[in-house]
Amino acid sequence: MKRNSILLGALCVVILLLSSCRTTQRLQVLPPSEAEIRHPKREFRGAWISTAWQSRYKEMNSEQMKQYFSRALDELQAVGINAVIFQARPHADAFYQSGIEPWSALLTGTQGKAPDNGFDPLAYLVEECHKRNMELHAWLNPYRVTAGVNDVLAPNHLYYREPQRFVTYGGKIYFDPGLPENEAYICRIVKDIVARYDVDAIHMDDYFYPYPVAGEAFPDDASFARYAAAQGFGAEQRADWRRNNVNKLVREIKYTIAATKPWVRFGISPFGIYRNKKNTPDGSGSDTNGLQNYDDLYADVLLWAKEGWIDYNMPQLYWEIGHPAADYETLIRWWSNKRDDSHLYIGQDVKRTMDATQPSGESQLEQKMVLARRMSGGSCFWPAYELLDDYKEVSTDLLLNYYRYPALIPAYTHMHGRAPKKVKKIWEEYTEKEHLLRWTADVDPSDPEKAKYYVVYRFAKSEKENTDDASRIVSITRQPQYVLPYEGGRGSEYKYVVTAVDAFHNESKGRTKKVKL
Would the pTM of this model clear 0.70, i.e. be above it? Predict the structure, then answer.
């Protein structure tokens, strides 16, 4: 298929999905089997690498940073992580080469100062993640400009050129979400990243309108007076108007991504409470008592999922099981019951999970992992640094128990549901040093429906081939080859099955090769 036709076709599909009169069948969520709970073949296994409030990067030169990132990815991959969410835009600045915004002060110590040797952290992480067949999601904070009163902006920052587009709240500077030009600007940032980098997704977390500051009103009187009435909102509807501002941003970001690279996903990791039951007239909220997305951050996450404006929803369920105000189990059941076509993954707090204990004295990791597998498509751990430190042996536990076998990321069938073609010819090849299994496949980097990576399974000679069994996966790779193991002694016969997987994570049927080792 030619590149133009695939882009046009995929874009049409996305726009149809996003229309208010959607006619596609809703995603059917079947309860997992016990085997799938223990060792699921498909599971999102993510980790957040934050850059906000981090001093470690500005203390490194480019070579040290490369070594740090490579070592971190090796360790995360070894634990079983298959997706990295990297904070590429922490404060209206960049951990990548941008012609729109300045380099981040968190990267070099001075906003606007470039790293040495032309180093581009985002480009490096995309390449290194894909070498390991891990996804890279570019994490952006839309409205935040500074983290505190002492932050120094670059002389050429947009804030100095057009200060009327910003507000100060709680001692921090934000884009005014009520201004259409700010919505367009943020979409421009998204388009720039998606067009120039091979990212797998754009990711945003819980920072939309800022967290409320006691005794201080958010200063959007001017934009409300200018735009609210014209947009159909009355004087008493400021909260609805604010929600509409965020809704428009989320929708336009999705449209921007779809028009640029339709296979790139858009995910949100909202604060863990949508609304408290006591605050909803129909009692549809969760049985919790805390800050709310809908009422306090003006983030209508359920609407975004319903309308197809996001491809995955990853609520931050950072509390303990049994927490008096926000019980983890109560919340995961609530979110699971509310999921729509978008995938549901669970944000897990490493420290709070490992510090909280069951009656047996063990951490709550096992309880949370079982609940997450019963009610969602995977987990993402905050922060990645605590996995790298193996905090209270969390990484050891994941590797030995829950992530013992590799997993494919769940297929985004609501975006594209047809499997790619099978791999073609498959054969053995010997070199001076290696015994290889090699194959060919339909590959086109510009066509997301073609093979993006491959899965290699191994079965005993007399064993039934079952590619749903994660324990039979010996490799997930972007290379059309697999190094066969040398087992010594008399040759043992096995069946190797190779499948192709596209950019949406749809898997082809397998092609089998009998091999004697």
Answer: yes
